[in-house]
Predict the structure.
Amino acid sequence: MNKLNLEKKILKQYLEENTKQILQKANSIKSGHIGGSVSMSQFLLPIIYYLEIENSIEYRLVLSKGHASLGLYSILSLLNINKIPFQNYCTNDPDSFHGHTCKNSFNKLLASTGSLGHGLPIAMGYSYAQKLSKSIIPTICIMGDGELQEGTFWESILHFARMKLNIKIIIDFNDSIDTDTLKIDEAIKSFLEVHELNAFSYSDLKKGIELINANGPIIIFFRTVKLANVKNYESKPQWHAGIPNTLELSDMLDKINIKLED
């Protein structure tokens, strides 16, 4: 089985509830990066649902854009995989999970992450060790488009394709940077499989699942927007790390409208 079987209607309900959770949590604890957490969730929620709920597939995950931990923790809570990181997000509890992703929050996470650009080298090291041990466990590395300006990304990308590692790089391309790095140099495309998908397309999300199931190195650019599906608030820079007050939260919740084309 290599296709997402989650019905479009149910996926929209999950995405709506996940968006609400992220916004409400950020407001209640006055912390979190809601812009990238919501944009990432548009594709990461169905991916984790497929891997964890539908199929129980063995894999490893690196959230290189570690500041979007609230998005990951919300997904884990919503899907009843692990509710503790979301419940204790930025609290005074001894088991509190703070703003950047903690390895202890999810048994599939390879590392605690924060600074942009470091996730891919970690994913490469693990995947190379898996290759040496003849393992076929895939490594999924979630990156933000801002990381495309980091030297570690380009230095790593030139190596891992030639090493034939089973890594899937998934980029949350939410237009957070003023650049055209989506147009990867043709020389790189000549030895690396690159796909551009629309995170608001149900068929593209299903295609992304199929690509994750394929063996070998692949890059997937998922076109999203910051604070996706919150009408009048999308793509505004202040919501990269801005926290909604009570009135803003109420307005945001009223304006949630999940976009998911066929």
In short: The CA atoms of residues 103 and 184 lie 31 Å apart. The chain has one domain: 8-254. The first helix runs from residue 8 to 29.
